[in-house]
Amino acid sequence: MAEIRFVEHQITARVPELGNATNVIDAGLTIRIDPLTGHSARILHQGQLAPTVRTDLTQLTAPPPFCPFCEDKLEEATGVIDAAITDEGRIRRGVSAVVPNVLAYSEFSSVGLYDTTRHFVGLRELTPLLIGDLMCGLVAYARGVGGVRPMWHSINANYLPPAGSSVVHPHAQTAHDDIGTTAQRTLMAASERWPGNFWRDLIETEAGGPRWLGTRGRVRVLTPWAPIGFHEVWLVLPELRDILELTDEDCADLGAVLSGVLSGYDALDLASFNWALYGGGPHPSDKYGLLLRMVSRANPDPVYRSDVTYFERLHAEAMIDMAPEEVAQRLAPHLQSAVTI
Ligand SMILES: [Zn+2]
To answer: Same domain for 262 and 170?
Structure first.
C-alpha cells in the first residue's frame, strides 16, 4: 500500500480584531493539500460563515399552479425515454420517476424525481427508501445508456435555487457522453498515476480516524481531508469502477447514508445541497473506486451570501470554516442507524 500523505500548512495572519479594529491580533488559517489531486483547501479558524437562523422555506416550496414534475402533470409535461435506452418509457421505482431531460447538458441526460406525489420534500423527509428508489431508477437509466456504447456517466443533484436548481421540486440528474467532466477526468488521471489503488489505500488509512463515519454494505463514509465545499461528505465504493456496476442493494445503501447525511445537514440549519456520483469513464479502471461527493450550499434566504467566492469560482479552491473532523463529529449521530463504524 502506498503511503497517503496528509499535508497541511498552518498560516498566521496579523489582522485587526473584529469589533476592536485598533487591536491587531494573530489569526490562524489552515491550508490542506488533497493527497490525490494536489488541490488545496482553506479552512478558516474563525467560523463566521455558517447560517445563523433557520431559513423559512414555506413560500419558496409552496406548490405552484403548474409543476411538470408533480404526478398530475408528469405524463403530459414530460417525454418518454428513447426505446434504445429503456422500454419502460418513464422509469418508476416506488414514488420516484426518471424522465428525459429537456435541456441538453450532455449527449444523454435524464431527470429523476425523488417523489412525484409531493411537490416539495424536506431534508428530513428524504428517507432512505425515497433516495434508494430514485438511485435505482437513475442507475437503470445509466445502464440503458451504457448499452448504447461505453461512455462517461455521472448522477448529480441540485436542491433548491442556491444549489443551481431552477425547479424547486426535488430532483437529481444524470449526464452521459464521450467527454466526461473536468472533475471526472482529473480524478481518473490522478487515480491512474497513484501506485496501487488510491481509494482502497484511502479507506484503509482513514478507517476509524477523525474523519471516518462508517460502513454500510460496500459503501464507505468519511469526510475528506481537503474539501472542495462546505460540510463535504464522501461515499466511496472502492470495489466498484463505474456507476453501471451498482446493484439495487448498493442503491439502497447509498440512499440510507445520504438520508442520514441530510438529517445531519438539517440539524446544522442547512437547507440546500449538491451531490455528484462520478462514473469512471468508458474504459473502467481497477485504479478507481466509485466516489459520491456531497456538499451543502448557501441557504435560500432572500438575500444570501453565496458559498462560492472568487476562491472557489476562479481559483478552484474551497474556503470553509468548519474542519472536516468537526463535520464528521457533527454528522456522526445522524448516521448511527445507517452505518457501522
Ligand atoms: Zn412539483
So the answer is: yes
Q: How many domains are contained in the chain?
A: 2
Read off the C-alpha cell for 192.
Answer: 491512474
Strands (E), the chain: 7-17, 20-33, 40-44, 91-93, 96-100, 108-113, 152-159, 171-177, 212-216, 219-222, 230-237, 272-278, 290-297, 318-320
Do 40 and 62 reside in the same domain of the chain?
Answer: no
- Mean pLDDT, the chain, integer: 96
Residues spanned by the domain of 71: 58-335
Instruction: Report the separation in Å between the CA atom of 270 and the middle of ligand 1, taken as the mean of its atom positions.
Output: 22
Based on the fold, state whether residues 252 and 285 are members of the same structural domain.
Answer: yes
- Same domain as 250, residue 154: yes
Distance 293 CA to ligand 1 centre (A): 26
Q: How far is the CA of 66 from the centre of ligand 1 (A)?
A: 8
Residues bordering ligand 1, an ion, CB closer than 5 Å: 67, 69-70, 119, 169
Distance in Å, CA 17 to ligand 1 centroid: 48
pLDDT tens string 74-120: 999 999 999 999 999 999 999 999 999 999 989 999 999 999 999 99
Please tell me whether residues 34 and 66 are part of one structural domain: no
189 and 300 in a common domain: yes
**What is the Å distance from ligand 1's center to 169 Cα?**
5
Task: Find the 144 Cα to ligand 1 centroid distance in Å.
Answer: 26
φ, ψ dihedrals at 152, nearest 5°: -85, 135
Q: Does some domain include residue 51?
A: no
Assessment of whether the complete model's pTM goes beyond 0.90: yes
User: 25 and 72: one domain?
Assistant: no
> Has residue 49 been placed in a domain?
no
- How close is the Cα of 117 to the center of ligand 1, in Å? 8
Instruction: Report the 10 Å Cβ neighbour count for 311.
Output: 14
Tell how far the Cα of 115 is from the centroid of ligand 1, in angstroms. 9
